[in-house]
Amino acid sequence: MVSFTTPMFALLALFASVTYSYTYVGCYAPPTDLEYNIRFIFQSVGYCRVRCSTLNQPVLGVTNGTDCLCGSAIPLPDSLVEDTLCNSPCAGYAAQMCGGRGFFSVYLIADLDNPEQPPNETSTQRVELVSTSIALPQASVDNKSSQLLLPDSNEL
Protein backbone atom coordinates (compact mmCIF):
# COMPACT_ATOMS: atom_id res chain seq x y z
CA MET A 1 0.00 0.00 0.00
CA VAL A 2 1.44 3.37 -1.03
CA SER A 3 1.28 6.02 1.65
CA PHE A 4 0.05 9.51 0.80
CA THR A 5 2.42 11.04 3.35
CA THR A 6 5.61 10.01 1.52
CA PRO A 7 4.95 12.15 -1.59
CA MET A 8 3.69 14.95 0.64
CA PHE A 9 6.94 15.03 2.68
CA ALA A 10 8.98 14.90 -0.53
CA LEU A 11 7.01 17.86 -1.89
CA LEU A 12 7.50 19.81 1.36
CA ALA A 13 11.25 19.07 1.28
CA LEU A 14 11.40 20.34 -2.31
CA PHE A 15 9.46 23.48 -1.35
CA ALA A 16 11.74 24.13 1.62
CA SER A 17 14.84 23.73 -0.55
CA VAL A 18 13.59 26.19 -3.18
CA THR A 19 11.99 28.82 -0.94
CA TYR A 20 14.96 29.71 1.24
CA SER A 21 18.30 31.15 0.25
CA TYR A 22 21.61 29.47 1.02
CA THR A 23 25.03 29.24 -0.59
CA TYR A 24 27.13 26.11 -0.96
CA VAL A 25 30.52 26.56 0.74
CA GLY A 26 32.09 23.18 0.04
CA CYS A 27 32.63 19.59 1.12
CA TYR A 28 34.45 19.20 4.44
CA ALA A 29 36.04 16.37 6.37
CA PRO A 30 35.66 16.13 10.13
CA PRO A 31 36.23 17.60 12.59
CA THR A 32 33.93 20.60 12.30
CA ASP A 33 32.35 22.85 14.90
CA LEU A 34 28.92 22.02 13.52
CA GLU A 35 26.62 20.38 16.04
CA TYR A 36 24.19 17.58 15.27
CA ASN A 37 20.62 18.84 15.06
CA ILE A 38 18.38 16.16 13.56
CA ARG A 39 18.22 13.01 11.44
CA PHE A 40 15.28 13.06 9.07
CA ILE A 41 14.26 10.41 6.54
CA PHE A 42 13.05 13.16 4.17
CA GLN A 43 16.13 15.37 4.65
CA SER A 44 16.95 18.16 2.22
CA VAL A 45 19.23 21.17 2.38
CA GLY A 46 16.11 23.35 2.64
CA TYR A 47 14.73 21.41 5.59
CA CYS A 48 18.07 21.61 7.40
CA ARG A 49 18.24 25.31 6.59
CA VAL A 50 14.89 25.89 8.31
CA ARG A 51 16.09 23.97 11.39
CA CYS A 52 19.35 25.94 11.63
CA SER A 53 17.81 29.35 10.96
CA THR A 54 15.27 28.65 13.72
CA LEU A 55 18.28 28.27 16.04
CA ASN A 56 19.77 31.45 14.52
CA GLN A 57 22.77 29.45 13.27
CA PRO A 58 24.07 30.81 9.92
CA VAL A 59 25.99 27.67 8.87
CA LEU A 60 24.47 24.28 8.12
CA GLY A 61 25.95 20.96 7.19
CA VAL A 62 24.33 17.82 5.88
CA THR A 63 25.87 14.36 5.90
CA ASN A 64 24.97 10.77 5.10
CA GLY A 65 21.87 11.93 3.20
CA THR A 66 19.80 12.27 6.40
CA ASP A 67 21.72 14.20 9.08
CA CYS A 68 21.49 17.96 9.67
CA LEU A 69 24.11 19.91 11.63
CA CYS A 70 24.11 23.60 12.56
CA GLY A 71 26.79 26.04 13.66
CA SER A 72 28.03 29.59 13.78
CA ALA A 73 31.34 29.12 11.97
CA ILE A 74 32.45 27.77 8.61
CA PRO A 75 34.86 24.84 9.12
CA LEU A 76 38.60 25.45 8.82
CA PRO A 77 39.96 25.61 5.25
CA ASP A 78 42.33 22.74 6.10
CA SER A 79 39.37 20.34 6.23
CA LEU A 80 38.04 21.29 2.75
CA VAL A 81 38.03 18.23 0.46
CA GLU A 82 36.96 17.45 -3.11
CA ASP A 83 33.23 17.82 -3.81
CA THR A 84 33.16 14.26 -5.17
CA LEU A 85 33.37 12.99 -1.55
CA CYS A 86 30.00 14.60 -0.79
CA ASN A 87 28.09 12.24 -3.06
CA SER A 88 25.12 11.12 -0.92
CA PRO A 89 21.81 12.34 -2.35
CA CYS A 90 19.48 13.97 0.17
CA ALA A 91 16.88 11.45 1.31
CA GLY A 92 14.05 13.96 0.80
CA TYR A 93 15.27 15.56 -2.42
CA ALA A 94 17.68 13.41 -4.44
CA ALA A 95 18.63 16.28 -6.77
CA GLN A 96 20.70 17.73 -3.89
CA MET A 97 23.80 16.24 -2.32
CA CYS A 98 23.67 15.85 1.46
CA GLY A 99 27.30 15.17 2.25
CA GLY A 100 28.85 11.76 2.07
CA ARG A 101 29.83 8.94 4.35
CA GLY A 102 31.88 10.88 6.90
CA PHE A 103 31.89 14.13 4.88
CA PHE A 104 29.78 17.27 5.23
CA SER A 105 28.19 19.44 2.55
CA VAL A 106 28.38 22.89 4.17
CA TYR A 107 26.08 25.79 3.30
CA LEU A 108 25.86 29.40 4.41
CA ILE A 109 22.36 30.72 5.10
CA ALA A 110 22.13 33.96 3.14
CA ASP A 111 19.55 35.86 5.21
CA LEU A 112 21.31 35.46 8.58
CA ASP A 113 24.31 37.45 9.76
CA ASN A 114 27.74 36.48 8.50
CA PRO A 115 29.16 33.51 10.38
CA GLU A 116 32.22 33.74 12.54
CA GLN A 117 35.41 32.59 10.98
CA PRO A 118 37.03 29.78 12.96
CA PRO A 119 39.10 31.26 15.78
CA ASN A 120 42.89 30.90 15.77
CA GLU A 121 43.01 30.58 19.52
CA THR A 122 40.60 29.39 22.16
CA SER A 123 38.53 31.98 23.95
CA THR A 124 36.81 31.52 27.28
CA GLN A 125 33.83 33.13 28.89
CA ARG A 126 33.39 33.58 32.59
CA VAL A 127 30.02 32.91 34.15
CA GLU A 128 29.27 34.28 37.59
CA LEU A 129 26.48 33.00 39.79
CA VAL A 130 24.18 35.57 41.31
CA SER A 131 22.34 34.80 44.53
CA THR A 132 18.84 36.06 45.19
CA SER A 133 16.93 36.49 48.41
CA ILE A 134 13.68 35.12 47.05
CA ALA A 135 12.50 31.97 48.83
CA LEU A 136 10.49 29.63 46.66
CA PRO A 137 7.71 27.51 48.20
CA GLN A 138 8.36 23.81 48.66
CA ALA A 139 5.92 21.34 47.15
CA SER A 140 5.50 17.66 47.89
CA VAL A 141 3.52 14.80 46.42
CA ASP A 142 1.27 12.67 48.62
CA ASN A 143 1.87 9.09 47.42
CA LYS A 144 -1.49 7.84 48.65
CA SER A 145 -3.70 10.19 46.69
CA SER A 146 -1.23 11.36 44.01
CA GLN A 147 -2.13 14.98 44.66
CA LEU A 148 0.25 17.89 44.67
CA LEU A 149 0.25 19.53 48.09
CA LEU A 150 1.26 23.19 48.24
CA PRO A 151 1.94 25.06 51.47
CA ASP A 152 -0.63 27.45 52.85
CA SER A 153 -0.28 31.09 51.82
CA ASN A 154 0.49 31.90 55.50
CA GLU A 155 3.65 29.76 55.30
CA LEU A 156 5.05 31.79 52.37
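Above is the first protein from milestone M3; the second protein from the same milestone is given next.
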Amino acid sequence: MTRTSPFSSPRGNTPRFSEIALLHHALTLLAPFATDDGSGGEFHGPSLEDFFPPVIFFEGTVFEINRVILIRFFVVAVLLLLFWLGTRRMKVIPGRGQSVLEFAYGFVRDNIVYGALGEKDGKRFLPLLVTMFFFIVGMNLTGIIPGINLAGSSVFGLPIVLAIVSYVAFMYAGIKKHPGAFFKNSLFPSGVPWPLYFIITPIEFLSTFILRPVTLSIRLLMNMVAGHMLLVLCFSATQFFFFSTDLPFTLFGAGTLAFGFIFTIFELLVAVLQAYVFTYLTAVYIQLALAEEH
Protein backbone atom coordinates (compact mmCIF):
# COMPACT_ATOMS: atom_id res chain seq x y z
CA MET A 1 0.00 0.00 0.00
CA THR A 2 1.34 3.43 -0.92
CA ARG A 3 2.09 5.66 2.04
CA THR A 4 0.94 9.26 1.86
CA SER A 5 2.40 12.34 3.44
CA PRO A 6 0.29 14.82 5.36
CA PHE A 7 1.70 17.53 3.14
CA SER A 8 0.92 15.78 -0.14
CA SER A 9 -0.60 17.55 -3.09
CA PRO A 10 -4.16 16.82 -4.27
CA ARG A 11 -2.73 13.92 -6.28
CA GLY A 12 -0.88 12.66 -3.25
CA ASN A 13 2.65 12.79 -4.65
CA THR A 14 3.79 16.41 -5.19
CA PRO A 15 4.11 18.75 -2.21
CA ARG A 16 2.17 21.98 -2.24
CA PHE A 17 5.04 23.70 -0.49
CA SER A 18 5.58 25.53 -3.81
CA GLU A 19 2.39 27.52 -3.25
CA ILE A 20 3.40 28.39 0.31
CA ALA A 21 6.85 29.43 -0.92
CA LEU A 22 5.21 31.52 -3.66
CA LEU A 23 3.01 33.18 -1.08
CA HIS A 24 5.99 34.02 1.14
CA HIS A 25 7.92 35.40 -1.83
CA ALA A 26 5.00 37.56 -2.92
CA LEU A 27 4.57 38.98 0.57
CA THR A 28 8.29 39.80 0.62
CA LEU A 29 8.02 41.67 -2.69
CA LEU A 30 5.03 43.63 -1.43
CA ALA A 31 6.60 44.51 1.91
CA PRO A 32 8.14 47.82 0.69
CA PHE A 33 4.65 49.01 -0.30
CA ALA A 34 3.00 48.07 3.00
CA THR A 35 3.24 51.55 4.47
CA ASP A 36 0.72 54.17 5.31
CA ASP A 37 0.82 57.08 2.90
CA GLY A 38 -1.19 59.33 5.20
CA SER A 39 -4.45 58.78 3.36
CA GLY A 40 -5.29 55.42 4.80
CA GLY A 41 -3.74 53.59 1.85
CA GLU A 42 -2.10 50.77 3.74
CA PHE A 43 -1.62 47.28 2.31
CA HIS A 44 -2.98 44.46 4.45
CA GLY A 45 -1.88 41.01 3.34
CA PRO A 46 -3.57 37.72 4.21
CA SER A 47 -3.47 36.56 7.80
CA LEU A 48 -4.36 33.45 9.76
CA GLU A 49 -6.83 35.63 11.63
CA ASP A 50 -9.11 35.24 8.59
CA PHE A 51 -9.81 31.70 9.74
CA PHE A 52 -10.83 32.76 13.24
CA PRO A 53 -13.51 35.44 12.75
CA PRO A 54 -15.32 36.97 15.73
CA VAL A 55 -18.37 35.31 17.22
CA ILE A 56 -21.70 36.50 15.82
CA PHE A 57 -24.24 34.56 17.89
CA PHE A 58 -24.26 32.82 21.28
CA GLU A 59 -20.89 34.10 22.42
CA GLY A 60 -19.53 32.36 25.47
CA THR A 61 -21.56 29.18 24.95
CA VAL A 62 -20.81 25.84 23.29
CA PHE A 63 -23.11 26.93 20.44
CA GLU A 64 -20.99 29.88 19.33
CA ILE A 65 -21.58 30.76 15.69
CA ASN A 66 -19.11 32.76 13.65
CA ARG A 67 -18.73 33.42 9.94
CA VAL A 68 -17.22 29.99 9.26
CA ILE A 69 -20.16 28.20 10.89
CA LEU A 70 -22.62 30.33 8.92
CA ILE A 71 -20.81 29.37 5.71
CA ARG A 72 -21.18 25.71 6.60
CA PHE A 73 -24.90 26.15 7.33
CA PHE A 74 -25.25 27.91 3.99
CA VAL A 75 -23.53 25.09 2.08
CA VAL A 76 -25.70 22.42 3.70
CA ALA A 77 -28.85 24.41 2.91
CA VAL A 78 -27.80 24.94 -0.72
CA LEU A 79 -26.93 21.26 -1.23
CA LEU A 80 -30.25 20.13 0.24
CA LEU A 81 -32.12 22.62 -1.94
CA LEU A 82 -30.28 21.63 -5.13
CA PHE A 83 -30.82 17.92 -4.66
CA TRP A 84 -34.44 18.43 -3.66
CA LEU A 85 -35.15 20.55 -6.72
CA GLY A 86 -33.29 18.15 -8.98
CA THR A 87 -34.98 14.98 -7.73
CA ARG A 88 -38.50 16.00 -6.68
CA ARG A 89 -39.95 15.23 -10.13
CA MET A 90 -37.86 12.43 -11.55
CA LYS A 91 -38.60 11.58 -15.18
CA VAL A 92 -37.58 8.79 -17.52
CA ILE A 93 -36.41 11.48 -19.93
CA PRO A 94 -34.64 13.83 -17.52
CA GLY A 95 -34.79 17.59 -17.69
CA ARG A 96 -31.77 19.85 -17.50
CA GLY A 97 -31.47 19.89 -13.69
CA GLN A 98 -32.03 16.17 -13.32
CA SER A 99 -29.48 15.47 -16.07
CA VAL A 100 -26.79 17.50 -14.30
CA LEU A 101 -27.39 15.76 -10.98
CA GLU A 102 -27.49 12.33 -12.59
CA PHE A 103 -24.22 13.04 -14.40
CA ALA A 104 -22.52 14.20 -11.18
CA TYR A 105 -23.93 11.27 -9.22
CA GLY A 106 -22.88 8.81 -11.93
CA PHE A 107 -19.36 10.24 -11.97
CA VAL A 108 -18.92 9.67 -8.24
CA ARG A 109 -20.56 6.26 -8.32
CA ASP A 110 -18.65 4.85 -11.30
CA ASN A 111 -15.25 6.51 -10.93
CA ILE A 112 -14.84 6.62 -7.16
CA VAL A 113 -17.11 4.15 -5.38
CA TYR A 114 -17.38 1.30 -7.88
CA GLY A 115 -13.88 2.01 -9.14
CA ALA A 116 -12.38 1.32 -5.72
CA LEU A 117 -14.88 -1.09 -4.16
CA GLY A 118 -16.59 -2.82 -7.03
CA GLU A 119 -20.33 -2.82 -7.54
CA LYS A 120 -21.22 -5.33 -4.81
CA ASP A 121 -19.42 -3.66 -1.91
CA GLY A 122 -19.80 -0.22 -3.47
CA LYS A 123 -23.58 -0.27 -3.14
CA ARG A 124 -23.29 -0.61 0.63
CA PHE A 125 -21.13 2.47 1.02
CA LEU A 126 -22.52 4.49 -1.90
CA PRO A 127 -24.73 6.83 0.19
CA LEU A 128 -21.87 7.69 2.55
CA LEU A 129 -19.27 8.30 -0.16
CA VAL A 130 -21.57 10.27 -2.47
CA THR A 131 -22.63 12.49 0.43
CA MET A 132 -18.99 12.96 1.45
CA PHE A 133 -17.94 14.00 -2.05
CA PHE A 134 -20.63 16.62 -2.63
CA PHE A 135 -20.33 17.94 0.92
CA ILE A 136 -16.59 18.52 0.52
CA VAL A 137 -17.04 20.07 -2.93
CA GLY A 138 -19.62 22.49 -1.54
CA MET A 139 -17.44 23.45 1.42
CA ASN A 140 -14.37 23.94 -0.77
CA LEU A 141 -16.13 26.07 -3.41
CA THR A 142 -17.16 28.77 -0.94
CA GLY A 143 -13.52 29.85 -0.95
CA ILE A 144 -13.91 31.31 -4.46
CA ILE A 145 -17.47 32.66 -4.22
CA PRO A 146 -17.45 36.49 -4.14
CA GLY A 147 -18.79 37.81 -0.85
CA ILE A 148 -17.91 34.61 1.01
CA ASN A 149 -14.26 34.05 0.03
CA LEU A 150 -13.60 31.48 2.73
CA ALA A 151 -13.80 27.71 2.37
CA GLY A 152 -15.89 25.97 5.00
CA SER A 153 -13.20 23.28 5.08
CA SER A 154 -10.33 25.72 5.77
CA VAL A 155 -10.71 25.48 9.56
CA PHE A 156 -9.46 22.27 11.13
CA GLY A 157 -12.68 21.18 12.82
CA LEU A 158 -14.47 20.11 9.64
CA PRO A 159 -11.56 18.22 8.00
CA ILE A 160 -10.93 16.23 11.18
CA VAL A 161 -14.63 15.36 11.52
CA LEU A 162 -14.65 14.13 7.91
CA ALA A 163 -11.48 12.14 8.59
CA ILE A 164 -13.11 10.56 11.65
CA VAL A 165 -16.12 9.57 9.54
CA SER A 166 -13.74 7.98 7.03
CA TYR A 167 -11.89 6.21 9.84
CA VAL A 168 -15.10 4.87 11.39
CA ALA A 169 -16.25 3.57 8.00
CA PHE A 170 -12.90 1.82 7.53
CA MET A 171 -13.08 0.24 11.01
CA TYR A 172 -16.72 -0.76 10.56
CA ALA A 173 -16.04 -2.44 7.23
CA GLY A 174 -13.06 -4.38 8.55
CA ILE A 175 -14.63 -5.53 11.81
CA LYS A 176 -17.89 -6.52 10.14
CA LYS A 177 -16.16 -8.48 7.35
CA HIS A 178 -13.43 -10.05 9.54
CA PRO A 179 -14.67 -9.82 13.15
CA GLY A 180 -12.03 -12.13 14.59
CA ALA A 181 -9.03 -11.35 12.43
CA PHE A 182 -9.18 -7.70 11.36
CA PHE A 183 -6.84 -6.25 13.99
CA LYS A 184 -4.61 -9.33 14.07
CA ASN A 185 -3.99 -9.36 10.33
CA SER A 186 -3.62 -5.58 10.20
CA LEU A 187 -0.94 -5.52 12.90
CA PHE A 188 0.65 -8.93 12.32
CA PRO A 189 0.87 -9.57 8.54
CA SER A 190 1.26 -13.20 7.60
CA GLY A 191 4.53 -14.54 6.24
CA VAL A 192 6.74 -12.27 8.36
CA PRO A 193 9.38 -13.81 10.67
CA TRP A 194 8.18 -13.27 14.24
CA PRO A 195 11.19 -11.19 15.42
CA LEU A 196 10.34 -8.58 12.79
CA TYR A 197 6.93 -8.03 14.38
CA PHE A 198 8.68 -5.88 17.00
CA ILE A 199 9.41 -3.43 14.17
CA ILE A 200 6.52 -4.00 11.76
CA THR A 201 3.64 -4.02 14.25
CA PRO A 202 4.27 -0.50 15.67
CA ILE A 203 4.74 0.83 12.14
CA GLU A 204 1.51 -0.78 10.94
CA PHE A 205 -0.38 0.50 13.97
CA LEU A 206 0.89 4.04 13.46
CA SER A 207 0.32 3.99 9.70
CA THR A 208 -3.06 2.24 9.62
CA PHE A 209 -4.82 3.48 12.74
CA ILE A 210 -3.22 6.86 13.51
CA LEU A 211 -1.77 8.53 10.42
CA ARG A 212 -4.64 7.83 8.02
CA PRO A 213 -7.16 10.24 9.58
CA VAL A 214 -4.38 12.76 10.27
CA THR A 215 -3.12 12.79 6.67
CA LEU A 216 -6.65 12.97 5.26
CA SER A 217 -7.55 16.00 7.37
CA ILE A 218 -4.24 17.86 6.95
CA ARG A 219 -4.19 17.37 3.18
CA LEU A 220 -7.64 18.91 2.80
CA LEU A 221 -6.99 21.67 5.34
CA MET A 222 -3.65 22.84 3.96
CA ASN A 223 -4.87 22.98 0.37
CA MET A 224 -7.80 25.17 1.35
CA VAL A 225 -5.70 27.41 3.60
CA ALA A 226 -3.02 27.91 0.93
CA GLY A 227 -5.65 28.67 -1.71
CA HIS A 228 -7.37 31.25 0.47
CA MET A 229 -4.10 33.00 1.30
CA LEU A 230 -3.08 33.23 -2.35
CA LEU A 231 -6.42 34.64 -3.48
CA VAL A 232 -6.53 37.18 -0.65
CA LEU A 233 -2.97 38.22 -1.44
CA CYS A 234 -3.74 38.78 -5.14
CA PHE A 235 -6.98 40.71 -4.71
CA SER A 236 -5.77 42.72 -1.70
CA ALA A 237 -2.71 43.74 -3.67
CA THR A 238 -4.96 44.64 -6.63
CA GLN A 239 -7.05 46.95 -4.47
CA PHE A 240 -3.93 48.48 -2.95
CA PHE A 241 -2.22 49.18 -6.26
CA PHE A 242 -5.36 50.56 -7.96
CA PHE A 243 -6.60 52.82 -5.17
CA SER A 244 -3.61 53.63 -2.95
CA THR A 245 -0.66 54.15 -5.29
CA ASP A 246 0.23 56.35 -8.24
CA LEU A 247 1.75 55.54 -11.59
CA PRO A 248 3.76 53.51 -12.40
CA PHE A 249 2.87 51.32 -9.39
CA THR A 250 -0.82 51.31 -10.37
CA LEU A 251 0.09 49.14 -13.34
CA PHE A 252 1.05 46.34 -10.96
CA GLY A 253 -2.65 46.08 -10.11
CA ALA A 254 -3.42 44.68 -13.55
CA GLY A 255 -0.89 41.93 -12.98
CA THR A 256 -2.15 40.97 -9.53
CA LEU A 257 -5.73 41.02 -10.85
CA ALA A 258 -4.78 38.64 -13.67
CA PHE A 259 -3.04 36.34 -11.22
CA GLY A 260 -6.13 36.49 -9.01
CA PHE A 261 -8.35 35.20 -11.81
CA ILE A 262 -5.83 32.50 -12.73
CA PHE A 263 -5.60 31.30 -9.15
CA THR A 264 -9.40 31.38 -8.88
CA ILE A 265 -9.68 28.92 -11.77
CA PHE A 266 -6.90 26.85 -10.25
CA GLU A 267 -8.65 26.77 -6.86
CA LEU A 268 -11.87 25.69 -8.57
CA LEU A 269 -10.01 22.66 -9.89
CA VAL A 270 -8.36 22.05 -6.52
CA ALA A 271 -11.72 22.23 -4.73
CA VAL A 272 -13.13 19.42 -6.86
CA LEU A 273 -9.89 17.46 -6.92
CA GLN A 274 -9.54 17.52 -3.13
CA ALA A 275 -13.07 16.18 -2.76
CA TYR A 276 -12.21 13.44 -5.26
CA VAL A 277 -8.98 12.52 -3.44
CA PHE A 278 -10.57 12.50 0.02
CA THR A 279 -13.52 10.37 -1.10
CA TYR A 280 -11.40 8.03 -3.20
CA LEU A 281 -8.92 7.43 -0.39
CA THR A 282 -11.82 6.68 1.94
CA ALA A 283 -13.10 4.12 -0.56
CA VAL A 284 -9.61 2.61 -0.89
CA TYR A 285 -9.27 2.30 2.89
CA ILE A 286 -12.64 0.55 3.04
CA GLN A 287 -11.55 -1.78 0.23
CA LEU A 288 -8.36 -2.64 2.14
CA ALA A 289 -10.43 -3.45 5.21
CA LEU A 290 -12.65 -5.74 3.14
CA ALA A 291 -9.76 -7.52 1.40
CA GLU A 292 -9.71 -11.30 1.82
CA GLU A 293 -6.28 -11.38 3.45
CA HIS A 294 -7.91 -9.88 6.53
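Note on the second protein: Residues 49-290 form one domain.
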